[in-house]
Amino acid sequence: MSVATQDTALRTGRVARTLIYLFLLLMALFYLLPFGIMVINSLKPLSEITGGNMMSLPQEWTLDAWRAAWSTAQIGVEPTGMRPYFWNSIKMVVPAVAISTVLGALNGYVLTKWRFRGDTILFGLMLFSCFIPFQIVLIPMARVLGLMGLAGTTSGLILVHVVYGIGFSTLYFRNYYAVFPTELVRAAMMDGAGFFRIFWRILMPSSGPITVVCIIWQFTNIWNDFLFGASFADFDSQPITVALNNLVNSSTGVKEYNVHFAGAIYAALPTLLVYIVAGRYFVRGLMSGSVKG
Amino acid sequence: MSFLKIDNVTKRYGAVEVLHRVDIDVQQGEFLVLVGPSGCGKSTLLNMIAGLEEISSGTIAIKDKPMNGVHPSKRNIAMVFQSYALYPNMTVGKNITFGLEMHGVPKEDRDRAMDKVADMLQIKPLLDRKPGQLSGGQRQRVAMGRALVRDPDVFLFDEPLSNLDAKLRVDMRTEIKKLHQRLGTTIVYVTHDQIEAMTLSTRIAVMNGGYIQQLGTPKEIYDTPNNIFVAAFMGSPSMNLLDAVIRIKGPDAAAEITDYNGHPITLPLPLPAASLAGRDGTKVVLGIRPEAITDPDGADKSAKIVVQMQNKIDVTEPAGSDTFITTTMVGKDVIGRMRADAHVNAGDIADLSINMDKAVIFDPKSEDRIV
């Protein structure tokens, strides 16, 4: 891929090149600016922020706001900090991502290698779920969760996110497995491997890139979800996005901007980490579905 | 008792019938090649033997046990795929023993079987590598190793050589033939390459349009093709098919064609006139193989009927071992095969010897061979 990029890159002079890099650097700074401001202000005492200058570096560096946001800040009515909600989110995201990814992979496997009558229609319907706006399902979903006895629980949120996630994860894996040689599956069948053995021993070991894509996508979406968290969770199962809202929008007391900034960074950190760790597989995985090799 | 019995087998996809009532009996140790153009149903038939496609009607039996509905892994067969289908995430050794592992064979026995096969195919040094690190020929060997290690009743080959370059293909062809001679296993082999079919098989089934056109030994197929399709498909360059008129004089029959100038030429036929009764003066299709049209010195000395004629040479194609010439008879291109050193040039009027011993006659309407 790098060879191809070199070949197609325009030949440019030194001046033009400098200008291009300068422009790119500026744009990068522009994009990083909000995050930078958040970090800077989270490291200041509140007096420096209310004193007027949000853009300047802290005169007195302090981690007090970070500590407060994590464990003592007022969220709703309780001074618990973000900590319990952070774990709520983890407890919701990890199973939801794992289940929707595995189910998506199984769906993709069945839809490409165990074709049956009407499989394309079924796939079309599953794709449709990617385009259903969240708001439409709020009330029916609340009813279903109530009937299942999952209302206001983390398990209920996991169910909602798995149901919504399957559409995308199936799409990813189906397109990836569509170019996976069927002869391999047939060879494994003749070797005596069954449905699940073929899946675990033959397909899964070759599915690294698309699994990473699916995990990043699902993790980001589910972690960042606010609507379902606000609608279906109780106080003891609310995810961090809801807690952040409650922290920032509390109508009593002084607005502690430095604590709000620190809280927002806590809420953004896991998705950032996932991108940094697995990001380079992201493009590779997206490409490998369309162009083999 | 036949080893592999394909009895009245039909394959339908919805309303479309792609294989029509196929009957083949394969004896133990036979090397049967299914050959035909793409879409003739040969791969479908192979997949049905393998159990990868359902049989719409009829039965396939191995060792007298009907195989309809039996899972592929329980048929005691092994298959070599066109793309080799090696598991990319496993080493060569794992690839070879995966089937045994799935059948619950203990590790020591698996390793012993793997060593034996690796020795036989000379792939010992490759056992720890991944398929991606192997060349085409090596992958081919590993794919065969994976089939051999199971010690199956029947081997199925699905165009195994078509992904190799020309030279390697010839080498692997010889290898497969050696392997068959050494092990004496029963093989069903699918190819679209008629040279592979001729060289490897003990019997050939030529297929077209879902029908078996002819089933026979390579010699039968080559010398006495059932119909025009088989005649044209088998042999390279393919058989010359000329419009001719039958002339019967007493006990002798002859076919009349014209040379490049349109002058009539009479070619005596190796058939008794009785077999062509009632066809005097009618049109037929005369089939002559290129190797039967030679320079006079290259003619087969033991041939019974050789006709000498002069004809204009349009094109010469020296192939090293032979020189192919194109000339015109009955207004059509005719290919002949001369010795490499024959002195012919394009545009010459050259002496040609036509060996009529193996000439065949087809009915122009039914396209079947007469007699």
From TrEMBL, chain A:
Origin superkingdom: Bacteria
Report keywords, A-Z. Membrane, Transmembrane, Transmembrane helix, Transport
What membrane topology does this protein have? Multi-pass membrane protein
**TM ranges:** 20-40, 92-110, 122-145, 157-177, 198-219, 259-283
Q: Which compartment or compartments is the protein found in? A: Cell membrane
- Is Membrane one of the keywords? yes
Record GO cellular component, one term: plasma membrane
| ABC transmembrane type-1 domain span | 86-278
Under Pfam families, the record lists: BPD_transp_1 (PF00528)
| Gene Ontology BP, a term | transmembrane transport
Q: Which family does it belong to?
A: Belongs to the binding-protein-dependent transport system permease family.
Stated name of the protein: Carbohydrate ABC transporter membrane protein 2, CUT1 family
Organism per entry: Puniceibacterium sediminis
From TrEMBL, chain B:
Tell me the ranges covered by the ABC transporter domain, including all copies.
Answer: 4-234
Q: Name one GO cellular component term.
A: ATP-binding cassette (ABC) transporter complex, substrate-binding subunit-containing
Q: Which GO terms describe its molecular function?
A: ABC-type transporter activity; ATP binding; ATP hydrolysis activity
Q: Which CDD domains match?
A: ABC_MalK_N
Write out the coiled-coil annotation as residue ranges: none
Domain of life, per the record?
A: Bacteria
Provide the alphabetized UniProt keywords.
Answer: ATP-binding, Nucleotide-binding, Transport
Tell me any Pfam family this protein matches. Answer: ABC_tran
Q: Which SMART domains match?
A: AAA (SM00382)
Instruction: Write out the GO biological process terms.
Output: carbohydrate transport
Q: Which family does it belong to?
A: Belongs to the ABC transporter superfamily.
What is the name of this protein? Carbohydrate ABC transporter ATP-binding protein, CUT1 family
Q: Which organism is it from?
A: Puniceibacterium sediminis
